[in-house]
């Protein structure tokens, strides 16, 4: 059981960084951003290309983050300046990033096997097993990024971004340019997704142009499951809930696979799981209403 639990939790923590990025657009900005399906492999491709050419890990992560930022800015400009609906703007950026990712890697799949990554560095430093090493890297990354996000969204500009998602007319009345806050929110979101892609690619040992398929569903599943199970009493609580939701999602997936579900049905199961999670708040409210009526 432990042999299954440790790597599953480790994977959940790595993907939690991507889920935090989805949370910023989906909950904070109130925008359904499909850019993440292109940004995730973009971060992976960028990091893999740097590592494959002998670059440092710091350079790989910095460039992956910058690439994610640029993708978010493109979506933001399409939405705010060209007045393209946010959903369509994200789709356009996602489609364009497919070709960009192929250009960066030079082919559809780029291996990093036998090369120095964040995980090999941690393993050499600590001497832990592979699964524990991934768990440590995931936990450290998740905690650091969560702390930085919590600090940033407590600043004046961070509060302006949160207010933009809550009520654009109100924040405009305060003299804030909502176009800038929307672009900045998309930038931060996709930066996190790019970093997550770089981490997951290093853990897998390769970057693939198709590894972003279904990323938005995984992110939404993590956000919704976390909110339903752990609550949203405060912004800090919401960040923790998203991270724990990603872990719970991975545990659920691991359990159903262990029970014999064909891997080909995994996407269908994920879609059904997200649909159920999205409907839970409505079911809970109806149940409370009936209970109060009695």
Tell me, rounded to a whole number, the average pLDDT.
91
State the domain count: 1
Strand composition percent? under 5%
Counted beta strands: 2
Low-confidence stretches: none
The helix fraction, in percent, is over 70%
Order of helices and strands: HHHHEHHHHHEHHH
Structural class label = mainly alpha
The rounded distance between the terminal residues' Cα atoms is 44 Å
Radius of gyration: 19 Å
Shape: globular
Explain what this protein looks like in three dimensions.
The chain has one domain. α1 runs parallel beside α6, α1 crosses α10 (215-230) and α3 runs antiparallel to α9. The protein has 294 residues and is mainly α. It contains twelve helices and two strands; from the N terminus they run ααααβαααααβααα. The radius of gyration is 19 Å and the shape is globular. A two-stranded antiparallel sheet has the order 1-2.
């Amino acid at each position: 059981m432990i042999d299954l639990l440790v790597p599953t939790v480790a994977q959940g923590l790595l993907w939690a960084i991507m889920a935090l990025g989805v949370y910023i657009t989906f909950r904070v900005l109130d925008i359904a951003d499909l850019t993440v399906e292109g940004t995730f492999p973009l971060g992976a491709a960028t990091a893999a290309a740097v590592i494959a050419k002998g670059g440092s890990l710091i350079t790989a992560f910095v460039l992956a983050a910058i690439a994610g930022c640029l993708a978010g800015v493109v979506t933001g400009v399409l939405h705010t300046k060209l007045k393209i609906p946010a959903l369509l703007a994200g789709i356009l950026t996602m489609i364009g990033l497919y070709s960009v990712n192929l250009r960066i890697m030079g082919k559809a799949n780029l291996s990093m096997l036998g090369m120095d990554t964040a995980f090999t560095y941690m393993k050499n430093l600590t001497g832990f097993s592979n699964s524990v090493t991934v768990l440590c890297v995931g936990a450290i990354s998740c905690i650091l990024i969560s702390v930085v996000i919590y600090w940033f969204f407590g600043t004046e500009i961070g509060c302006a971004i949160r207010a933009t998602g809550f009520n654009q007319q109100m924040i405009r009345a305060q003299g804030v340019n909502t176009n800038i806050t929307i672009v900045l929110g998309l930038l931060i979101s996709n930066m996190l997704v790019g970093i997550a892609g770089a981490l997951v690619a290093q853990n897998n040992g390769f970057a693939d142009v198709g590894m972003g398929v279904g990323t938005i569903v995984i992110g939404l599943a993590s956000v919704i499951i976390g909110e339903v199970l752990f609550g949203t009493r405060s912004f800090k609580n919401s960040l923790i809930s998203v991270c724990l939701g990603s872990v719970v999602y991975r545990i659920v997936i691991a359990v159903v696979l262990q029970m014999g579900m064909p891997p080909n049905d995994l996407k269908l199961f994920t879609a059904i799981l997200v649909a159920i999670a999205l409907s839970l708040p409505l079911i809970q409210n109806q149940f409370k209403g009936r209970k109060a009526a009695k």
